[in-house]
TrEMBL record:
Pfam families: EamA. The chain crosses the membrane at residues 12-29, 41-61, 73-94, 100-119, 126-144, 150-173, 185-207, 213-230, 242-262, 268-285. This is DMT family transporter. InterPro entries: AA-Vitamin_Transporters (IPR050638), EamA_dom (IPR000620), EmrE-like (IPR037185). It comes from Halomonas pelophila. Keywords: Membrane, Transmembrane, Transmembrane helix. Belongs to the EamA transporter family. It is found in: Membrane. Residues 297-324 are annotated as: Disordered.
Length: 324
């Protein structure tokens, strides 16, 4: 069943699963009472350990080779991953949460522009329309919390969508000799290292209070899988579309906070969330209809061709390892 799905649909399903696992993140941040540097230190350390274990289990002694295969992404993606975490925490200290969310919602647009200018990734007209509508819907969700804030907070918040866009776009652009993108999940531990080292230098390497330990443990359970899947989605989709799916985290995170903490969303938030869900559902259904219409007209199944190429490539890699 999975092999019969188009590549784009697989990318959306993988990324959406990652976003579902990422959605408790806002709840965990609200629930902990540690300082930002302490939170970032333990976030980077716990995520880094789990993600490194996953990479070692998958690649073993070939992990250095897998990292080198990422090309420029081995530098840009970890730095962007760490910068987005730092910018998000610092921005929330200097401006309202609504301002930060509005800035974050610009990530799909920024990713689309970066992909177009630097990597010549051309998006379909439908994708640009979906990005515009979803950015508007996500902005409605944050409109009730938008405050004046400070120019410093707004400036730092702008780094959040830029960092997310750089990570997803650079990751999706590393194709190498594969029809599917290069596996950049192997460099996520480097991003965690880039996150925790500055936190340690600023005094974040301290033991958290006992009441925060369970929340940090839950974070170490869900977030590594979330970031692994989201980064994997960039192998199937352009960075702009990965960033677009990430807008669902704003909706799901708000609903979780509503359910657990009791913070009732505003009417605008509910309207904006509905706009996002309906728009993405309509876009997905239109893609499926287009795919079926092409297949009915006798067009070659590109997904099957790509899948066969990947299976042949995987078989070749297995044979090479066996010879060693």
């Amino acid at each position: 069943m999975w092999k019969r799905l188009p590549f784009r649909l697989r990318g959306y399903l993988i990324t959406m699963t990652g976003v579902l696992l990422l959605s408790p993140d806002a709840l965990l941040v609200k629930g902990t009472g540690v300082s930002p540097v302490t939170f970032l230190f333990w976030r980077g350390l716990l995520l880094g350990i789990v993600l490194l274990m996953i990479a070692l289990l998958r690649y073993g002694h070939r992990l250095p080779e897998a990292i080198r295969a990422c090309g420029p992404a081995a530098w840009w993606c970890p730095l962007a991953f760490a910068a987005s975490g730092w910018a998000f925490v610092i921005a929330n200290r200097f401006t309202s949460a609504g301002n930060v969310l509005v800035m974050m919602n610009l990530a799909p647009l920024v990713a689309g522009l970066i992909g177009l200018v630097f990597f010549r990734q051309r998006l379909r007209r439908q994708t640009w329309v979906v990005i515009a509508i979803c950015v508007g819907g996500a902005s409605l969700m944050a409109a009730g919390e938008v405050g004046q804030g400070s120019l410093l907070g707004l400036g730092v918040a702008l780094f959040v969508p830029i960092s997310i866009a750089i990570n997803t776009t650079v990751a999706s652009a590393q194709k190498g000799e594969r029809r599917r993108g290069i596996d950049t999940t192997v460099i996520l531990p480097l991003g965690c290292l880039a996150m925790l080292l500055p936190a340690a230098l600023f005094g974040g390497a301290t033991l958290p209070p006992a009441e925060d330990v369970p929340l940090l443990a839950i974070m170490a359970l869900f977030l590594p899988a979330a970031y692994f899947l989201i980064q994997t989605g960039a192998r199937y989709l352009p960075g702009a579309e990965v960033s677009l799916v990430l807008l669902l985290e704003t909706l799901l995170g708000s609903l979780l906070v509503w359910w657990w903490v009791g913070e009732v969303p505003t009417d605008l938030a509910l309207i904006g969330g509905g706009i996002i869900v309906v728009t993405m559902m309509v876009s997905s259904l239109r893609d499926l209809h287009r795919q079926r219409r092409k297949a009915a007209g006798g067009a070659p199944d590109i997904g099957r061709i790509q899948q066969q190429a990947l299976e042949d490539e995987t078989a070749g890699e297995v044979a090479e390892v066996s010879r060693r």
